[in-house]
Write a structure and sequence with these properties.
- The protein has helices at about 20-35, 75-80, 115, 120-125, 140-145, 150-160, 175-180, 185-195, 250-265, 285-295, 410-420, 420-430, 440-445, 455-465, 470-475, 480-500; strands at about 45-50, 65-70, 85-90, 100-105, 165-175, 195-200, 215-225, 235-240, 270-275, 305, 310-315, 330-335, 340, 345, 350-355, 370-375, 385-390, 395, 400-405, 450.
- Helix 14 (about 455-465) packs antiparallel against helix 16 (about 480-500).
- The protein is of the alpha/beta class.
- It has two domains: about 20-295, Vaccinia Virus protein VP39 (Rossmann fold, 3-Layer(aba) Sandwich), CATH 3.40.50.150; about 305-500, DNA methylase specificity domains (Adenine-n6-DNA-methyltransferase TaqI, Chain A, domain 2, Alpha-Beta Complex), CATH 3.90.220.20.
- The structure holds S-adenosylmethionine.
Amino acid sequence: MTTTVPPGRPTSTGQHFTPEPTAAFLWEQIRSVMPPVLPSGKRLRVVDPAAGEGALLRPLNGVQTDLAIGLEIDPVVAKRGRRVGVEVGDGLLDHQLRAASFDVAVANPPFGRASDLLTEDQWRQLGSRRGPSIWGEWSANSRRRFASRPLEQLFVERCLELVSVGGWLALILPDGLLANRRSQAARDWILQRARPAMIVALPSATFRRPGLHAMAHLVLLKRKTTDHGAPQGDPCWLVQRPSARLDLSSLMATISTDLQQARDGHKIEGISSIDPGRLRGSRWDAGYWQGQQQAHWWSPKIRDAPLGDFVEHLTYGPIVTGSKPTHVVDGIVSIRQGDFTGTGLRLTQALRVALHGDHDPQRSRVRCRDLLLPRSGAGALGRNRIGVYLLEEEANIGCFVDRIRLAGINPFYVWLFLRTQPGWGQIKAAFNGVGTPNINFEEIRSLRIPQLSPERQDHVEAAYKQRILPLHVEERADATEQAVVEFSALIHELEQLLMGKRG
Ligand SMILES: C[S@@+](CC[C@H](N)C(=O)[O-])C[C@H]1O[C@@H](n2cnc3c(N)ncnc32)[C@H](O)[C@@H]1O
C-alpha cells in the first residue's frame, strides 16, 4: 500500500504501553465473541489504524486471518512492525483503507487534544470533510471548533467506519472518554452505531512511565446493523480496575478467568453486567456502574431523597493564589485534608491561620455540626474521609475541603451513611473518571440518602459519641485501633438496618 505521510510534528505518542498481556487478553476476548472462521468460510480481515510496531496485531495466534494490516504514521516505528503487517500511513485519512471492509478493528490510538497531535496537513484534509462526525458537523471553521477535542474519538469513528456491520472493535480508550461529562455526546454517538459487549478497566500498570500515568479501559464493541435505535441483546460485561498488587500478566490472567466464571453465572467481585441500553446518556466506566449498583441497595421500604434537599449551604475552602497559609499561634483553625482520619476529625495538630485574613473568609467559616468533605485526592476523598465538626469554637476550611451545612437531617447520620457500602458506592460513582478523584457540588447534592426516622438518625449520632469519640482523647496506645474497630462495627450495624435486617 502506498501512502503519503503528512509532514510536520511527530505524532508518535506511544503512552509507554506494556502491550503483551493486554494484547493477549484483547485477542482472547475477540475469540470469545467471534468464530475463528466466519460463517461465510472466509477468514478475518483485521485493521489497526494507529498500529505503532503492531503490538495489537501480533498475538493473533489461534485466530485465522485473510488480512491483517496496521497503519502507522511514523515511518521509523512502522518499519519495526513490518513483519506483522504494519505499513506507513495515516490511519485516519488513508483512502486505500475502504469503509466496511474489515471484520475486526483493534486500536490503542494516541490520546490527547487534536491541536497537539494533528499536523497542518491533516487539519487541511479533515477540513475538507462535510457532514456529521463524532465531533459534530464538519464545516469551514471546524479546525477552531475542534482544536481541543480528544483525538482518540476520531480514531473510534474511523474504526467504526472501517468495520462491516456485525464486525467487532476492540479499543483501548482513556478513562476520560468513558467517564467525562464533556465526552457524553461522543459516547452516545458511538452507542448509536455499536453495542458495547465488554468494558474492562485496565490495571493501572498498563501504561507507566515517570510523570505519566494514563488510565484506560479496553472496550469491546459490536458494529450494529442500523445507525439508530437502542442497542439490544446480550449484556455488556463491566470489569472494575483491579486493586491487587500483582504483575500485569497475572492481573490480566485473573481478569480473564474471572470474566469467564462471571459469564458462566458465578458471582465475581468487581464484575457485573448491564443492559447496554442503560449506557445511553450515561457514563461507561466500570467503576461508575459498580458504584451505581451498590447505591440502590437499601430496603425498598426505606424512601430516599437527594442530599441537595437538605443542603442549607454548600461551599468550598478559600483558594488563595500566591500565598500559602502560615501558622499563626492565636489564629483560627483551618481544617485541611490531613486533619481527617478514618473515624472523624482530629484537630490536635491543626493549622491556625490569621483571623479574617485571606485564608479565613467569612463565607467558609465552619460551625458545630457542619459536615466536612475533602473534595479531591486519592488519600482523602479516595479513602472516604469525611467528618462532622464538633467544637463550639468557629473554624475555617482549607482549599480542598467542602463545607456542607445541613438542615432537616442529622449530619452524623449523613456522614455515617456515606461510609456504608451504598453511600461510598455513590461517591465512587461520582468520582471524576480521570486521574485524581474529585467530586463537584452537583454530584454532592445528588447523592441519595435513605430517609431513616429522626429518632434513628439521632441514635446513630449518640452511638458515635458514646462508642468512638471518647477513644479519640484516650492516651492508650491501642485507642486509635479500637476506634477504627468500633467505627466499622457501627457502619456494619447501619448497613444491616438499611437492608432491613435489624429492627
Ligand atoms: C499509543 S500508540 C499505540 C501503538 C500500538 N498500537 C500499541 O498498542 O503499542 C499510537 C500510535 O499511533 C500512531 N499514530 C498517530 N497518529 C496516527 C495516524 N493518523 N495514523 C497512523 N498512526 C498514527 C503514533 O505514531 C503511535 O505509534
